[in-house]
Amino acid sequence: MAISGNTILVSSAHSHKDPLNGGSIYVYVEPAGGWSNMTETAELSFQQKGAGIGEVIATNGNIVVSFNSYTDSAVVWTEPSGGWVTSVMPNAELINSEDQPMGSSVAISGNVIVVGAPGAYSNYGATYLYEKPAKGWNKIGITETARLVGDAIDAGGGGNVVAISGDTVTTTANGLGVYVFEKPSAGWADMNQNAFLVPYTGADDASSLGFDGSTIVVGIPLQIVGVNPQQGAAFVFEKPAGGWKNTSTASAEVVASDGNINDQFGTAVDVSGGTIVAGSPLAQIGANLDEGAAYVFAQQ
Known about the structure:
The protein starts with a strand and ends with a strand. It has a domain at 207-300. It has a four-stranded antiparallel beta sheet with strand order 1-2-3-4, with no helix packed on it. A four-stranded antiparallel beta sheet has the order 5-6-7-8, with no helix packed on it. It is globular. 1% of the residues lie in helices and 36% in strands. The protein is mainly β.
């Protein structure tokens, strides 16, 4: 799922319509009278077998970004002047100039789209950044503005999970930490990270990432908490007054007060303002095994 303003996206990447596993994204726009039970405002799809549209999605409200697994390219829909309508053809396609594999995640902020590529360079990893062309998102085969590659030892180049807010891009790096890339004064160009954040030592893979410009949240669903394996935790980094810098000390660690073995808290995380939300899909609620829950944390 993804949300921006009054628009919600819900993916159905393996919908068994014709063609098989072409995938769809369902767009819901808040009605004038407020949210109520409803069907979709529009359905976005691409009539290609195995495209898996919706496997990863992002939106800024009037732009929707996803990934075409069949062509290994990101696809972009732009909202028509009259509002969202059902479409079977994206407005633009994003590729990379080096023909490297992409597709783990996508993110958008304003006129910039980032696409994770952990398989690039023989699985070393990279993140590709695209700025909106002068004529808009309306071209097949748009190539990247910049290639962002981390260079921390053993962490690879990043691109596993990506996030962007304003002029800053973040990405997880082989589960070992988070790279931070800030837009240079001369504009986006191929670059290495400005900072590398390591939330833990010897823990398991970082599988989720939330970023709102000043706060980074990293979810570690297999983290041991106390004596509980795979209870899961999330680590919080707040931007220092002097800007992002290398650190191995998180500002905070958040866990579920009723967490237990194998809850996998932190499978999904997000942050906005002073509020963090973390998903715990295998949490037991009452007598219900694996019912799952979302935990909300307000900044103190």
